[in-house]
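A reminder from the course coordinator: this example appears on the midterm review sheet, so study it carefully.

Given structure:
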């Protein structure tokens, strides 16, 4: 492929990494302490969602034009196809982050029982670990990162169930609060899913294989 193509592909990937990093940073902030869901932070998250949507819209158009005009093959094609597929995941992750913010505002986290507060905080932190790990894998080109993310992803599933069970058995959690906790848990689960998608597509780009179970070991040069 031409030097111009590789330069443009690099720019496309850099923009994707920046936008994905913006979303990941927001999730990390929300996960640090769900009780700090202030109106100011809510405004920042809403602005982030808008910015991400617009930047990804432009990026998707650039990617499709590059694909149509240059007809890349091999690793270049895999990388471009992966970016175009992951654009949707990153945009959805940004919206899940906003929904987490909205739920935390409605819940009044500080008034929750200590056990439920800790489960909620732990769930957010583990989901953020998976998302950050997926992005790090993508940036580094680490085809084996999925193995390292299996444990925190399992933790997310376990914490989600424990949070829902604790909320359902608590006499201090009722009605809308219980529903909001369930929705928040679901949003964090989806955020972790998108982190794993980043890791899976990294393995696809590096190895050329779609990952169903464990990622294949890349050849060492």
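Designed residues:
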């Amino acid at each position: 492929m031409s030097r111009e193509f590789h330069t443009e592909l690099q720019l496309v990937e850099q923009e994707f990494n920046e936008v994905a990093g913006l979303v990941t940073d927001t999730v990390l902030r929300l996960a640090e302490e769900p009780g700090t869901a202030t109106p100011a932070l809510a405004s920042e998250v809403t602005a982030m969602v808008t910015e991400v949507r617009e930047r990804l819209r432009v990026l998707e158009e650039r990617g499709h034009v590059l694909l149509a005009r240059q007809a890349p093959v091999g690793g270049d094609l895999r990388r471009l196809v992966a970016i175009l597929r992951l654009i949707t995941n990153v945009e959805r992750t940004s919206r899940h982050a906003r929904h987490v913010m909205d739920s935390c505002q409605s819940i009044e986290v500080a008034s929750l029982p200590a056990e439920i507060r800790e489960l909620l905080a732990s769930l957010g932190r583990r989901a953020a670990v998976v998302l950050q790990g997926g992005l790090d894998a993508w940036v580094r080109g680490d085809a084996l990162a999925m193995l390292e993310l299996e444990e925190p992803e399992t933790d997310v599933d376990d914490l989600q169930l424990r949070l829902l069970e604790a909320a359902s058995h608590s006499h201090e959690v009722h009605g809308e609060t219980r529903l909001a906790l369930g929705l928040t848990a679901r949003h964090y689960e989806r955020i972790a899913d998108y982190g794993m998608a980043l890791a899976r597509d990294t393995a696809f780009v590096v190895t050329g294989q779609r990952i169903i179970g464990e990622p294949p070991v890349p050849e060492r040069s």
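The first helix runs from residue 3 to 32. DSSP finds six helices and no strands in the chain.
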